[in-house]
Amino acid sequence: MFSHLKSWLMLFEEYTYFNYQFPEPQYLGAKHTHLVWLNKFIPKNIKKAIDAFGGSQSVAYLLKQCGFEVITNDFLEFNNQIGKALIENRDTKLDKTDIDFLFSNNSNLNEYNLITDTYTDLFFEIQEAVFADNLRANIEQLNDPFKKSLALTIINRAMTRKVTMGHFGHTQALVYANDPIRVKRNRSLIRPLKDIFLELLPNYNAAVFDNKKDNESYSLNILDLLPQLSNTDLIYFDPPYCDSHADYQSFYHLLETYTVYWKDKQFVNGIKRYEPQRYSGFDKKKTVVKSFEQLFEKSADIPNWLISYNNRSFPSIEQLAKMVAKYKNVSVETKTYQNGRGGKGSVAGSKEVLLVCKPKKQFSFNIKEKPQLSIDERF
Ligand SMILES: C[S@@+](CC[C@H](N)C(=O)[O-])C[C@H]1O[C@@H](n2cnc3c(N)ncnc32)[C@H](O)[C@@H]1O
Asked: Would you list the domain boundaries of the chain?
């Protein structure tokens, strides 16, 4: 009787996690528009799930809402900071005292001039670049790691709002910000970062919740993380879609530079991308097949896999399914884009694909030993 009541209460509690809202991201290939569809394929009778290529953390957030213990990971540090702020974090928010402190003048600015020196007149006018450096210096002085993560998450989101097209793989930011027609369409181009930050803040604070599990966020190459994990029931793979806009480090270099505050990189090309880059293994045709082979081999013990991919990427869905079939029973689900808003080079008519992978059925043969026939019976 009591155990029924307890499980009913737990179910009710898990249901309430869906009242929290994931703040809308602006990230190439983010799955926030596919979550209802994806959710249909997530097994619900499980305890622990991994989002291996977390990106904006939209799927990790869904897994947290399902009430699972969630491990999320992305090899870029700015995405890990979103994971800390919204997946790992149970209840820490930014309050008025934090905000006053974050916007106050920092006395140590001569050590914090990376954005001003590197991106003034490229992505920002000087006063915005100085604001970003000053804020970064103050974030470093917050004494709570989750407050730091939340502040980094919000300012990074504000920067993608301010810069045209929502990424940093072009040199048009200030050209568009000075074009009245563009500004009429998107006022964020000329709004101060501080205003955008303050507008986003309540949504991020409200998205923080506790699902009563010890969730964790990492920023590792997934191939290095997998051997450290155990007792996982489900792993979700949403790797870069190789051959169609997989270069996350060119698109989002500025967020990584701002978050890590590199001291040991060069800044190259017109966009001033950091160099050398981190190694992915999933973003180039010459390494991607080997990387998938290693990924599947290292995940063999995890019973359920879900793999997002696109029918215009490399390797083909058929080849990918063949590689998976070595370990799992696989079925292929598809969702056709009605328009080009799916990200990652998605165009109308291209398909978002989900490989739903389950354990192979274990057949046990009960082979009875042949009875030994006596000599008389043989003739
Ligand atoms: C398609 S995006 C994931 C999008 C995510 N599901 C979302 O909803 O926002 C792919 C992600 O893989 C990350 N990535 C690329 N190579 C990686 C690697 N070797 N290990 C971990 N993450 C990697 C990229 O930084 C990128 O964020």
From this structure: 2-259
Range 159-188 average pLDDT: 95
Q: Residue 366 has what pLDDT?
A: 60
Supply the residue whose CA is at minimum distance from atom 8 of ligand 1. 30
How close is the Cα of 53 to the center of ligand 1, in Å?
4
In this model, does residue 267 exceed pLDDT 50? Answer: yes
Residue whose CB lies within 8 A of the most ligand 1 atoms, among 58, 225, 282, 341, for a mutation test? 282
HEC profile of the chain = CHHHHHHHHHHHHHHHHHHCCCCCCCCCCCCHHHHHHHHCCCCCCCCEEEECCCCCCHHHHHHHHCCCEEEEECCCHHHHHHHHHHHHCCCCCCCHHHHHHHCCCCCCHHHCCHHHHHHECCCECHHHHHHHHHHHHHHHHCCCHHHHHHHHHHHHHHHHHHCHHHCCCCCCHHHHHCCHHHHHHCHHHHCCHHHHHHHHHHHHHHHCCCCCCCCEEECCCHHHHHHHCCCCCEEEECCCCCCCCCCHHHHCHHHHHHHHCCCCCEEECCCCEEECCCCCCCCCHHHHHHHHHHHHHHCCCCCEEEEEEECCCCCCHHHHHHHHHCCEEEEEEEEECCCCCCCCCCCCCCEEEEEEEEECCCCCCCCCCCCCCCHHHHC
**pTM (2 decimals)?**
0.92
